[in-house]
Amino acid sequence: MNTKRWWALAIFLVLLVTWTISTTKIKPVDSTGTANYLAYLNRLENKQAFTTQVYREGKGDSLALIKLEGIISESPVNSATVSTSYNHQSLLQQLEAAFSRPDIKGIIMQVNSPGGGVYESDEIYNRILELKAKYNKPLVVYMGQEAASGGYYVSMAADKIYANRNTLTGSIGVIIRTYNYEQLAEKVGVKDVTFKSGEQKDLLNPMRPLNEEEKAIAQNLVNESFGYFVDIVAKGRNMDRDLVLQLADGRIYSGTQAKYLGLVDELGNLDQAINDAAKLANITDPHVLLYQNPAPDILSWLYYIKAPAFDILGIKQQMDRVLSPQIMYLAN
To answer: What are residue 69's DSSP bridge partners?
Structure first.
């Protein structure tokens, strides 16, 4: 590389660093209203968990539209280019912010999720109940393409549930999945060496067959979480528990089937759900604010490209996360 090219590269790097530093010094701006790029940059300094923009202009009081999209998990997708993927902490903060704002009189939560972690699903459900009790504001759920398992679980906190006739919902059930690759390991000469303090410390170890005691332990965990799910549905839908048990074999239902079975209240679209939320909040011509995850920024991108996604440590971390046993409200 000749001298001119080295100078050009050096100037580019200086400009990049200067621009990055300057973006962290932008004064606070209100991100309410149409999307504002300065609000996205300002997030670097203020650590904003979300932005808002106008979804529907109206002359009446405001409603909040919050989107729950993707697999419900505490661990975010490790990508600087994806701003719409599920972010658990951001969702909880969006709910808190929407309920606590005096000018927002009701909330619509658009759910498009196959479910996810038992812990995270239950945390969302209970947080919504707490916020509804504290602020006395209605919440309407609109189910998108899919609102199954954990996606259905969190919907039980709603005052009213809308679904599209083609929505996939239900999947009331719990699953723990593991793998067994003992024979594959033997073929390639890999042996498991485990030191443990107790007999069940390596429960569901994929390097050996499960014994009957391990199967019983795992099944008991599933049964316990399943019982919570059935109780939540019985309470949320005001249904007899025995009837819920008849429906809770893990299968998914279409929106039409769910309406017939009493698992949702109405079939319709998002605008109808918004109008119904306005009625519950005694609003005419509502002003609807859409809450969103923040857009990607240059610092996130720089951090991401140096992440150990493809080195040995990164591969091990990802394998440990995927293969560790998890209790899931997740549609298969």
So the answer is: 112
- The overall average pLDDT reported for the chain is 82
Tell which residue, 65, 172, 66, has the closest CA to residue 124.
Answer: 66
Res. 282: pLDDT tops 70: yes
Distance CA 191, CA 205 (A): 12
Nearest to 228 by CA among 177, 289, 154: 154
Rg (CA), the chain: 24
Question: Which tokens hold the place of 183?
Answer: 């024979």
Rounded to whole angstroms, the Cα distance separating 257 from 269 reads 16
As beta bridge partners, residue 111 has 68, 143
Asked whether 158 and 140 are in contact (CB, 8 A), the reply is: yes
Write down the pLDDT at residue 245. Answer: 98
Alpha helices by DSSP H, the chain: 3-23, 37-46, 88-100, 118-135, 150-155, 182-188, 212-236, 241-247, 255-261, 270-280, 298-305, 312-323
**How many CB atoms are located within 10 Å of the residue 205 CB?**
18
149 is catalytic: yes
Sign of CA dihedral 141, 272, 31, 306: positive
Please tell me the pTM assigned to this model.
0.79
Q: Identity (one letter) of the amino acid at 38?
A: L
| Sequential DSSP letters for 16-27 | HHHHHHHHTTPP
CATH class of the 26-175+250-330 domain in this structure: alpha beta
Q: Tell me how far apart the alpha carbons of residues 322 and 179 are, in angstroms, rounded to a whole number.
A: 10
Considering 201, 215, 235, 316, which one is annotated as catalytic?
A: 201
Residue 121 to residues 25, 85, 152, Cα–Cα distance (Å) = 37, 16, 9
Helix 298-305 and helix 3-23: axis angle, to 10°?
A: 120
Measured between its terminal Cα atoms, the distance across the chain in Å is 54
Catalytic residue among 31, 62, 113, 149: 149
Beta strand extents in 164-313 (DSSP E only): 168-170, 175-176, 252-254, 266-267, 287-292
pLDDT 10s digits, 169-204: 999 999 998 888 888 878 888 888 888 898 888 888
Confidence at 40, pLDDT banded by 50, 70, 90: very low
| Residue 197: active-site member | no
Query: Which secondary structure element, helix H or strand E, spans residue 160, and what is its range?
Result: strand 160-163
